[in-house]
Amino acid sequence: MTPLHIHLEADEIPKHWYNVVADMSNPPAPPLGPDGKLVTPEAMGAIFPGPILEQEMSAQRWIEIPEDVRQIYAQWRPSPLIRALRLEQALGTPAKIFYKYEGVSPAGSHKPNSAVPQAYFNKLAGTKRLTTETGAGQWGSSIAYAGQMFGLPVRVYMVKVSFQQKPFRRSMMQTWGAEVFASPTDRTLAGRNALASDPNSMGSLGLAISEAVEEAASEPGVCYTLGSVLNHVAMHQTVIGLEAKKQFAKIGLYPDIIFGPCGGGSSFAGIAFPFLADKMAGEKRAQNLRCVAVEPTSCPTLTKGAYAYDYGDASGYTPIMKMYTLGHDFMPPGIHAGGLRYHGDSPLVSQLLFERQIEAIAVPQVATFAAGVQFAQAEGIIPAPESCHGIRAAIDEALRCKVTGEPKVILFCLTGHGHFDMASYDRYLSGQLEDYDYPSEAINESLKNLPKVGT
Ligand SMILES: *Cc1c(COP(=O)(O)O)cnc(C)c1O
User: Tens digit of pLDDT for each residue in 170-213?
Assistant: First the structure.
Protein backbone atom coordinates (compact mmCIF):
# COMPACT_ATOMS: atom_id res chain seq x y z
CA MET A 1 0.00 0.00 0.00
CA THR A 2 1.27 3.51 -0.83
CA PRO A 3 1.09 5.58 2.36
CA LEU A 4 -1.01 8.67 1.70
CA HIS A 5 -0.59 10.63 4.94
CA ILE A 6 2.88 11.76 5.87
CA HIS A 7 2.74 11.71 9.62
CA LEU A 8 4.41 14.00 12.17
CA GLU A 9 4.29 13.75 15.97
CA ALA A 10 2.89 16.53 18.18
CA ASP A 11 6.41 17.43 19.34
CA GLU A 12 7.32 18.11 15.71
CA ILE A 13 5.04 21.17 15.65
CA PRO A 14 7.55 23.95 14.87
CA LYS A 15 9.03 25.80 17.86
CA HIS A 16 9.66 28.96 15.82
CA TRP A 17 7.94 30.90 13.06
CA TYR A 18 10.04 31.85 10.04
CA ASN A 19 10.35 35.56 9.18
CA VAL A 20 11.23 35.95 5.48
CA VAL A 21 12.22 39.59 6.04
CA ALA A 22 15.58 38.33 7.37
CA ASP A 23 16.39 36.82 3.97
CA MET A 24 14.98 39.40 1.56
CA SER A 25 17.56 41.09 -0.65
CA ASN A 26 15.91 44.47 -0.08
CA PRO A 27 14.22 45.49 3.18
CA PRO A 28 10.42 45.75 2.91
CA ALA A 29 9.07 49.23 2.15
CA PRO A 30 7.90 50.69 5.50
CA PRO A 31 4.25 51.61 6.17
CA LEU A 32 3.70 55.37 5.88
CA GLY A 33 1.19 57.86 7.25
CA PRO A 34 -1.11 59.72 4.82
CA ASP A 35 1.44 62.59 5.00
CA GLY A 36 4.12 60.33 3.52
CA LYS A 37 6.07 60.16 6.80
CA LEU A 38 7.01 56.95 8.61
CA VAL A 39 4.22 55.71 10.90
CA THR A 40 5.27 55.95 14.51
CA PRO A 41 5.01 52.88 16.76
CA GLU A 42 2.80 55.04 19.03
CA ALA A 43 0.26 55.55 16.24
CA MET A 44 0.17 51.81 15.55
CA GLY A 45 0.03 51.18 19.32
CA ALA A 46 -3.48 52.64 19.35
CA ILE A 47 -4.80 49.53 17.64
CA PHE A 48 -2.15 46.78 18.12
CA PRO A 49 -0.51 45.45 21.31
CA GLY A 50 3.27 45.73 21.76
CA PRO A 51 4.29 42.13 21.06
CA ILE A 52 2.34 42.07 17.77
CA LEU A 53 3.89 45.40 16.68
CA GLU A 54 7.34 44.03 17.47
CA GLN A 55 6.69 41.03 15.23
CA GLU A 56 5.28 43.27 12.53
CA MET A 57 8.51 45.31 12.41
CA SER A 58 10.93 42.47 13.11
CA ALA A 59 13.76 41.42 10.81
CA GLN A 60 14.75 38.50 13.05
CA ARG A 61 14.77 35.21 11.12
CA TRP A 62 13.23 32.94 13.77
CA ILE A 63 10.60 34.00 16.31
CA GLU A 64 9.72 31.65 19.12
CA ILE A 65 6.23 30.16 19.23
CA PRO A 66 5.08 30.35 22.88
CA GLU A 67 4.36 26.98 24.52
CA ASP A 68 0.73 28.04 25.23
CA VAL A 69 0.22 28.67 21.51
CA ARG A 70 1.84 25.34 20.52
CA GLN A 71 -0.44 23.62 23.03
CA ILE A 72 -3.51 25.03 21.26
CA TYR A 73 -2.00 24.31 17.83
CA ALA A 74 -1.76 20.71 19.06
CA GLN A 75 -5.58 20.47 18.92
CA TRP A 76 -5.18 20.00 15.15
CA ARG A 77 -1.50 20.35 14.26
CA PRO A 78 0.68 18.98 12.79
CA SER A 79 -1.75 19.11 9.88
CA PRO A 80 -1.58 16.27 7.37
CA LEU A 81 0.48 16.33 4.19
CA ILE A 82 -1.46 14.07 1.85
CA ARG A 83 -0.46 12.47 -1.44
CA ALA A 84 -3.30 12.99 -3.96
CA LEU A 85 -2.73 9.58 -5.48
CA ARG A 86 -6.30 9.14 -6.70
CA LEU A 87 -6.23 12.57 -8.34
CA GLU A 88 -2.92 11.70 -10.03
CA GLN A 89 -4.51 8.50 -11.34
CA ALA A 90 -7.63 10.31 -12.54
CA LEU A 91 -5.45 12.80 -14.42
CA GLY A 92 -3.08 10.13 -15.72
CA THR A 93 -0.13 12.33 -14.84
CA PRO A 94 3.44 11.28 -14.08
CA ALA A 95 3.55 14.13 -11.53
CA LYS A 96 3.31 13.48 -7.80
CA ILE A 97 0.73 15.78 -6.22
CA PHE A 98 0.75 16.60 -2.50
CA TYR A 99 -1.50 18.86 -0.49
CA LYS A 100 -1.08 20.29 2.98
CA TYR A 101 -4.57 20.13 4.46
CA GLU A 102 -5.43 23.07 6.73
CA GLY A 103 -9.16 22.31 6.87
CA VAL A 104 -8.61 20.17 9.99
CA SER A 105 -8.57 23.21 12.31
CA PRO A 106 -11.65 23.90 14.48
CA ALA A 107 -12.68 26.78 12.20
CA GLY A 108 -12.02 24.70 9.07
CA SER A 109 -9.20 26.75 7.51
CA HIS A 110 -5.60 27.87 7.98
CA LYS A 111 -6.69 31.13 9.65
CA PRO A 112 -6.52 29.89 13.30
CA ASN A 113 -2.72 29.54 12.78
CA SER A 114 -2.59 33.32 13.18
CA ALA A 115 -5.79 33.89 15.18
CA VAL A 116 -4.44 31.84 18.11
CA PRO A 117 -1.14 33.73 18.53
CA GLN A 118 -2.90 37.06 17.94
CA ALA A 119 -5.36 36.31 20.76
CA TYR A 120 -2.52 35.02 22.96
CA PHE A 121 -0.29 38.10 22.56
CA ASN A 122 -3.27 40.42 23.08
CA LYS A 123 -4.18 38.61 26.28
CA LEU A 124 -0.56 38.84 27.43
CA ALA A 125 -0.53 42.60 26.75
CA GLY A 126 -3.74 43.18 28.76
CA THR A 127 -6.13 43.82 25.85
CA LYS A 128 -9.77 43.75 27.04
CA ARG A 129 -11.55 43.12 23.75
CA LEU A 130 -10.69 42.32 20.13
CA THR A 131 -12.32 43.76 17.03
CA THR A 132 -12.04 42.55 13.49
CA GLU A 133 -13.79 42.39 10.15
CA THR A 134 -14.71 39.33 8.19
CA GLY A 135 -15.74 38.78 4.59
CA ALA A 136 -16.75 35.21 3.94
CA GLY A 137 -16.62 34.56 7.70
CA GLN A 138 -13.46 32.46 7.80
CA TRP A 139 -11.37 34.98 9.71
CA GLY A 140 -14.22 36.05 11.99
CA SER A 141 -14.86 32.47 13.03
CA SER A 142 -11.14 31.84 13.55
CA ILE A 143 -10.66 34.84 15.84
CA ALA A 144 -13.94 34.05 17.65
CA TYR A 145 -12.58 30.58 18.39
CA ALA A 146 -9.13 31.89 19.36
CA GLY A 147 -10.58 34.64 21.59
CA GLN A 148 -12.64 32.01 23.35
CA MET A 149 -9.51 29.88 23.97
CA PHE A 150 -7.96 32.78 25.94
CA GLY A 151 -11.14 34.28 27.44
CA LEU A 152 -11.03 37.44 25.28
CA PRO A 153 -14.32 38.96 24.04
CA VAL A 154 -14.46 39.45 20.26
CA ARG A 155 -16.53 41.82 18.08
CA VAL A 156 -16.79 41.09 14.38
CA TYR A 157 -17.90 43.48 11.63
CA MET A 158 -19.13 41.11 8.94
CA VAL A 159 -19.61 42.36 5.35
CA LYS A 160 -23.39 42.61 4.99
CA VAL A 161 -23.63 40.51 1.84
CA SER A 162 -21.90 37.61 3.63
CA PHE A 163 -23.89 38.19 6.83
CA GLN A 164 -27.00 37.50 4.74
CA GLN A 165 -25.57 34.78 2.50
CA LYS A 166 -23.59 32.87 5.15
CA PRO A 167 -25.80 32.75 8.26
CA PHE A 168 -24.02 29.65 9.55
CA ARG A 169 -20.63 31.37 9.67
CA ARG A 170 -22.36 33.98 11.84
CA SER A 171 -23.83 31.36 14.15
CA MET A 172 -20.44 29.69 14.37
CA MET A 173 -18.90 32.95 15.62
CA GLN A 174 -21.78 33.41 18.06
CA THR A 175 -21.34 29.83 19.29
CA TRP A 176 -17.77 30.75 20.20
CA GLY A 177 -19.15 33.77 22.05
CA ALA A 178 -18.42 36.60 19.60
CA GLU A 179 -20.69 39.57 18.84
CA VAL A 180 -21.35 39.90 15.11
CA PHE A 181 -22.59 43.04 13.29
CA ALA A 182 -23.58 43.39 9.63
CA SER A 183 -21.29 46.06 8.13
CA PRO A 184 -21.93 48.90 7.34
CA THR A 185 -23.38 49.56 10.82
CA ASP A 186 -24.54 52.78 12.42
CA ARG A 187 -22.06 52.17 15.28
CA THR A 188 -19.12 53.91 13.60
CA LEU A 189 -18.53 57.09 11.64
CA ALA A 190 -17.21 55.05 8.69
CA GLY A 191 -20.37 52.95 8.71
CA ARG A 192 -22.72 55.93 9.05
CA ASN A 193 -20.96 57.73 6.17
CA ALA A 194 -21.31 54.66 3.96
CA LEU A 195 -25.01 54.30 4.83
CA ALA A 196 -25.60 58.01 4.17
CA SER A 197 -24.20 57.72 0.65
CA ASP A 198 -25.88 54.34 -0.03
CA PRO A 199 -28.55 53.14 2.43
CA ASN A 200 -28.61 49.77 0.64
CA SER A 201 -24.85 49.26 0.78
CA MET A 202 -23.97 45.57 0.97
CA GLY A 203 -20.60 46.47 2.43
CA SER A 204 -17.07 45.51 1.46
CA LEU A 205 -14.07 44.13 3.23
CA GLY A 206 -12.34 47.53 3.08
CA LEU A 207 -15.32 49.21 4.75
CA ALA A 208 -15.64 46.56 7.46
CA ILE A 209 -11.93 47.06 8.23
CA SER A 210 -12.59 50.80 8.66
CA GLU A 211 -15.34 50.04 11.18
CA ALA A 212 -13.26 47.58 13.20
CA VAL A 213 -10.20 49.87 13.20
CA GLU A 214 -12.33 52.86 14.22
CA GLU A 215 -13.71 51.00 17.22
CA ALA A 216 -10.22 49.87 18.29
CA ALA A 217 -8.71 53.34 17.86
CA SER A 218 -11.46 55.10 19.78
CA GLU A 219 -11.82 52.78 22.79
CA PRO A 220 -9.00 52.13 25.25
CA GLY A 221 -8.28 48.45 25.87
CA VAL A 222 -9.73 47.45 22.50
CA CYS A 223 -7.32 46.11 19.88
CA TYR A 224 -7.76 45.28 16.25
CA THR A 225 -6.82 42.01 14.56
CA LEU A 226 -6.32 41.29 10.88
CA GLY A 227 -6.50 37.85 9.29
CA SER A 228 -4.08 38.36 6.42
CA VAL A 229 -1.86 40.88 4.60
CA LEU A 230 0.34 42.04 7.51
CA ASN A 231 3.86 40.70 8.09
CA HIS A 232 3.10 39.08 11.45
CA VAL A 233 0.14 37.18 9.96
CA ALA A 234 2.26 35.86 7.08
CA MET A 235 4.88 34.83 9.63
CA HIS A 236 2.42 32.95 11.87
CA GLN A 237 1.26 30.99 8.82
CA THR A 238 4.78 29.64 8.18
CA VAL A 239 3.95 26.73 10.51
CA ILE A 240 2.31 25.30 7.36
CA GLY A 241 5.45 25.30 5.24
CA LEU A 242 7.79 24.42 8.11
CA GLU A 243 5.77 21.28 8.84
CA ALA A 244 5.54 20.45 5.14
CA LYS A 245 9.34 20.60 4.89
CA LYS A 246 9.68 18.07 7.71
CA GLN A 247 7.07 15.88 6.04
CA PHE A 248 8.86 15.96 2.68
CA ALA A 249 12.14 15.20 4.42
CA LYS A 250 10.56 12.01 5.83
CA ILE A 251 9.80 10.71 2.35
CA GLY A 252 12.97 12.01 0.75
CA LEU A 253 11.20 14.31 -1.71
CA TYR A 254 11.23 18.05 -2.33
CA PRO A 255 8.63 20.08 -4.26
CA ASP A 256 9.43 21.44 -7.72
CA ILE A 257 6.49 23.79 -7.68
CA ILE A 258 4.20 25.18 -4.96
CA PHE A 259 0.75 26.65 -5.54
CA GLY A 260 -1.48 28.45 -3.08
CA PRO A 261 -4.63 30.53 -3.38
CA CYS A 262 -3.93 34.17 -2.73
CA GLY A 263 -6.33 36.63 -1.13
CA GLY A 264 -4.25 38.72 1.25
CA GLY A 265 -1.37 36.30 0.78
CA SER A 266 -0.97 34.83 4.27
CA SER A 267 -1.48 31.12 3.54
CA PHE A 268 0.57 31.43 0.36
CA ALA A 269 3.36 33.04 2.38
CA GLY A 270 2.88 30.31 4.98
CA ILE A 271 3.40 27.41 2.62
CA ALA A 272 5.91 29.04 0.27
CA PHE A 273 8.31 31.15 2.37
CA PRO A 274 9.96 28.29 4.31
CA PHE A 275 10.83 26.60 0.99
CA LEU A 276 11.79 29.92 -0.63
CA ALA A 277 14.25 30.32 2.25
CA ASP A 278 16.16 27.29 0.91
CA LYS A 279 16.29 28.87 -2.53
CA MET A 280 17.44 32.22 -1.15
CA ALA A 281 20.12 30.38 0.88
CA GLY A 282 21.38 28.88 -2.39
CA GLU A 283 20.47 25.28 -1.52
CA LYS A 284 20.88 23.09 -4.58
CA ARG A 285 17.61 21.15 -4.16
CA ALA A 286 15.66 24.43 -4.22
CA GLN A 287 17.37 26.07 -7.19
CA ASN A 288 14.55 25.37 -9.63
CA LEU A 289 11.73 25.72 -7.13
CA ARG A 290 8.82 27.84 -8.34
CA CYS A 291 6.30 29.39 -5.94
CA VAL A 292 3.09 30.51 -7.65
CA ALA A 293 0.31 32.56 -6.03
CA VAL A 294 -3.11 31.92 -7.60
CA GLU A 295 -5.81 34.59 -7.58
CA PRO A 296 -9.26 34.98 -9.20
CA THR A 297 -9.61 36.87 -12.49
CA SER A 298 -12.45 38.75 -10.77
CA CYS A 299 -9.99 40.25 -8.25
CA PRO A 300 -6.64 40.27 -10.09
CA THR A 301 -4.56 42.17 -7.55
CA LEU A 302 -1.16 40.62 -8.28
CA THR A 303 -1.61 40.14 -12.02
CA LYS A 304 -3.34 43.40 -12.96
CA GLY A 305 -2.93 45.75 -10.01
CA ALA A 306 -0.35 48.49 -9.54
CA TYR A 307 2.65 48.08 -7.21
CA ALA A 308 2.13 51.25 -5.21
CA TYR A 309 1.42 52.71 -1.80
CA ASP A 310 -2.26 52.35 -0.87
CA TYR A 311 -4.54 52.22 2.13
CA GLY A 312 -5.55 48.91 3.65
CA ASP A 313 -9.19 50.00 4.06
CA ALA A 314 -11.89 51.90 2.20
CA SER A 315 -11.95 55.01 4.39
CA GLY A 316 -8.21 55.63 4.62
CA TYR A 317 -7.83 54.96 8.38
CA THR A 318 -4.91 52.54 8.04
CA PRO A 319 -1.33 53.46 7.25
CA ILE A 320 -0.48 53.22 3.56
CA MET A 321 1.50 50.17 2.52
CA LYS A 322 3.46 49.41 -0.62
CA MET A 323 1.71 46.48 -2.24
CA TYR A 324 -0.01 45.32 -5.38
CA THR A 325 -3.42 46.96 -5.26
CA LEU A 326 -6.57 47.47 -7.29
CA GLY A 327 -7.23 50.71 -5.40
CA HIS A 328 -8.73 50.96 -1.90
CA ASP A 329 -12.20 51.84 -3.21
CA PHE A 330 -12.32 48.72 -5.40
CA MET A 331 -15.88 47.46 -4.85
CA PRO A 332 -16.51 43.86 -5.78
CA PRO A 333 -20.00 43.01 -7.08
CA GLY A 334 -22.16 41.38 -4.37
CA ILE A 335 -22.26 37.92 -5.92
CA HIS A 336 -18.51 37.59 -5.71
CA ALA A 337 -18.04 37.87 -1.95
CA GLY A 338 -15.33 35.56 -0.76
CA GLY A 339 -12.00 35.16 0.94
CA LEU A 340 -9.97 36.21 -2.11
CA ARG A 341 -11.67 39.51 -2.74
CA TYR A 342 -9.43 42.09 -1.12
CA HIS A 343 -8.10 45.09 -3.07
CA GLY A 344 -4.52 44.74 -1.82
CA ASP A 345 -2.05 42.02 -0.95
CA SER A 346 0.64 41.21 1.56
CA PRO A 347 3.51 43.73 1.16
CA LEU A 348 5.97 40.82 1.54
CA VAL A 349 4.31 38.71 -1.16
CA SER A 350 4.04 41.87 -3.31
CA GLN A 351 7.70 42.76 -3.01
CA LEU A 352 8.89 39.21 -3.67
CA LEU A 353 6.67 39.13 -6.75
CA PHE A 354 8.00 42.51 -7.89
CA GLU A 355 11.54 41.13 -7.48
CA ARG A 356 10.51 37.99 -9.39
CA GLN A 357 11.35 35.61 -6.56
CA ILE A 358 7.82 34.26 -6.82
CA GLU A 359 5.14 34.21 -9.55
CA ALA A 360 1.42 34.94 -9.78
CA ILE A 361 -1.38 33.77 -12.07
CA ALA A 362 -5.14 34.40 -12.20
CA VAL A 363 -7.78 31.73 -12.88
CA PRO A 364 -11.47 32.16 -13.80
CA GLN A 365 -14.28 31.19 -11.46
CA VAL A 366 -16.03 28.39 -13.37
CA ALA A 367 -12.76 26.53 -13.96
CA THR A 368 -11.88 26.75 -10.27
CA PHE A 369 -15.16 25.11 -9.25
CA ALA A 370 -14.64 22.45 -11.91
CA ALA A 371 -11.26 21.75 -10.28
CA GLY A 372 -12.88 21.65 -6.84
CA VAL A 373 -15.45 19.11 -7.97
CA GLN A 374 -12.82 16.99 -9.73
CA PHE A 375 -10.72 17.08 -6.55
CA ALA A 376 -13.70 16.15 -4.34
CA GLN A 377 -14.58 13.25 -6.62
CA ALA A 378 -11.03 11.89 -6.53
CA GLU A 379 -9.89 12.73 -2.99
CA GLY A 380 -13.16 13.01 -1.07
CA ILE A 381 -12.51 16.36 0.61
CA ILE A 382 -14.77 19.20 -0.58
CA PRO A 383 -12.48 22.22 -0.80
CA ALA A 384 -13.33 25.82 0.05
CA PRO A 385 -13.92 27.92 -3.11
CA GLU A 386 -10.78 29.90 -2.27
CA SER A 387 -8.74 26.70 -2.07
CA CYS A 388 -10.05 25.64 -5.50
CA HIS A 389 -7.80 28.29 -7.07
CA GLY A 390 -4.67 26.47 -5.93
CA ILE A 391 -6.19 23.15 -6.99
CA ARG A 392 -6.96 24.48 -10.49
CA ALA A 393 -3.35 25.55 -10.91
CA ALA A 394 -2.02 22.23 -9.54
CA ILE A 395 -4.23 20.21 -11.88
CA ASP A 396 -3.17 22.34 -14.87
CA GLU A 397 0.49 21.79 -13.97
CA ALA A 398 -0.08 18.04 -13.60
CA LEU A 399 -1.72 18.00 -17.05
CA ARG A 400 1.29 19.83 -18.52
CA CYS A 401 3.51 17.14 -16.95
CA LYS A 402 1.38 14.56 -18.73
CA VAL A 403 2.34 16.18 -22.05
CA THR A 404 6.03 16.61 -21.26
CA GLY A 405 6.40 13.40 -19.25
CA GLU A 406 8.06 15.24 -16.37
CA PRO A 407 7.52 13.54 -12.98
CA LYS A 408 7.37 16.84 -11.08
CA VAL A 409 6.57 17.02 -7.39
CA ILE A 410 3.65 19.44 -7.03
CA LEU A 411 2.62 20.86 -3.66
CA PHE A 412 -0.41 22.96 -2.95
CA CYS A 413 -2.00 24.36 0.17
CA LEU A 414 -5.54 23.10 0.69
CA THR A 415 -6.45 26.09 2.85
CA GLY A 416 -9.86 24.92 4.03
CA HIS A 417 -12.93 22.77 3.53
CA GLY A 418 -16.02 24.04 1.76
CA HIS A 419 -18.75 22.82 4.11
CA PHE A 420 -20.07 26.35 4.60
CA ASP A 421 -19.86 27.14 0.93
CA MET A 422 -22.29 24.63 -0.49
CA ALA A 423 -24.54 27.44 -1.75
CA SER A 424 -21.71 28.42 -4.11
CA TYR A 425 -21.30 24.79 -5.18
CA ASP A 426 -25.06 24.69 -5.77
CA ARG A 427 -24.77 27.61 -8.14
CA TYR A 428 -21.89 25.94 -9.97
CA LEU A 429 -23.66 22.58 -10.18
CA SER A 430 -26.84 24.17 -11.53
CA GLY A 431 -24.88 26.10 -14.17
CA GLN A 432 -25.56 29.53 -12.69
CA LEU A 433 -21.96 30.58 -12.08
CA GLU A 434 -20.33 32.85 -14.61
CA ASP A 435 -16.80 33.99 -15.22
CA TYR A 436 -16.16 37.59 -14.43
CA ASP A 437 -13.02 39.48 -15.36
CA TYR A 438 -12.76 42.69 -13.43
CA PRO A 439 -12.66 45.26 -16.26
CA SER A 440 -9.39 47.13 -16.83
CA GLU A 441 -11.28 50.43 -17.09
CA ALA A 442 -12.70 49.93 -13.59
CA ILE A 443 -9.23 49.10 -12.27
CA ASN A 444 -7.76 52.22 -13.89
CA GLU A 445 -10.59 54.28 -12.43
CA SER A 446 -9.99 53.13 -8.84
CA LEU A 447 -6.20 53.39 -9.27
CA LYS A 448 -6.69 57.11 -9.88
CA ASN A 449 -7.56 57.43 -6.19
CA LEU A 450 -4.29 56.01 -4.86
CA PRO A 451 -2.73 58.25 -2.21
CA LYS A 452 -0.36 60.71 -3.85
CA VAL A 453 2.50 60.13 -1.43
CA GLY A 454 5.26 57.59 -1.17
CA THR A 455 5.55 57.07 -4.91
C1 LIG B 1 -9.08 33.55 3.87
C2 LIG B 1 -8.87 32.37 3.06
C3 LIG B 1 -7.98 32.36 1.97
C4 LIG B 1 -7.24 33.58 1.52
O5 LIG B 1 -6.50 34.27 2.49
P6 LIG B 1 -4.92 34.36 2.45
O7 LIG B 1 -4.55 35.32 3.49
O8 LIG B 1 -4.52 34.79 1.07
O9 LIG B 1 -4.42 33.01 2.75
C10 LIG B 1 -7.79 31.19 1.30
N11 LIG B 1 -8.46 30.06 1.63
C12 LIG B 1 -9.33 30.04 2.65
C13 LIG B 1 -10.03 28.76 2.97
C14 LIG B 1 -9.56 31.18 3.40
O15 LIG B 1 -10.40 31.14 4.43
Answer: 999 999 999 999 999 999 999 999 999 999 999 888 889 999 99
> Is 386 touching ligand 1 by the criterion CB < 6 Å?
yes
Q: Is the CB of 424 inside a 6 Å radius of any atom of ligand 1?
A: no
| Helix or strand holding residue 181 (H, E) | strand 179-183
| Nearest protein CA to atom 3 of ligand 1, as residue | 339
CA 166, CA 327: separation in Å to the nearest integer?
A: 26
Residue 132, ligand 1, Cβ within 6 A = no
Per residue in 83-99, pLDDT (tens digit) is 999 999 999 999 999 99
Among protein residues, the one with the nearest Cα to ligand 1's atom 5 is 263
332, 341 contact by CB (below 8 A): yes
37: CA distance to ligand 1 center in Å? Answer: 31
Cα(41)–Cα(60) distance, rounded to whole angstroms? 18
pTM exceeds 0.85: yes
5-10+66-108+232-447, CATH topology level: Rossmann fold (3.40.50)
Pick the atom of ligand 1 nearest to 270's CA: 9
At 332, is the pLDDT very low, low, confident or very high (cuts 50, 70, 90)? Answer: low
Nearest to 261 by CA among 234, 294, 298, 300: 294
Of residues 233, 237, 265, the one with CA closest to residue 390: 265
Question: Does residue 316 have its Cβ closer than 6 Å to ligand 1?
Answer: no
**Residues written for the chain:** 455
- Evaluate: CB of 100 within 6 angstroms of ligand 1: no
Our answer on whether the CB atom of 418 is closer than 6 Å to any ligand 1 atom is no
Residues of the chain with CATH 3.40.50.1100: 5-10+66-108+232-447, 49-60+111-228
Question: Would you say the CB of residue 113 lies under 6 angstroms from ligand 1?
Answer: no
The per-residue pLDDT for range 410-446, each reduced to its tens digit, is 999 999 999 999 999 999 999 998 888 888 888 888 8
Instruction: Fill in the DSSP letter of residue 260.
Output: E
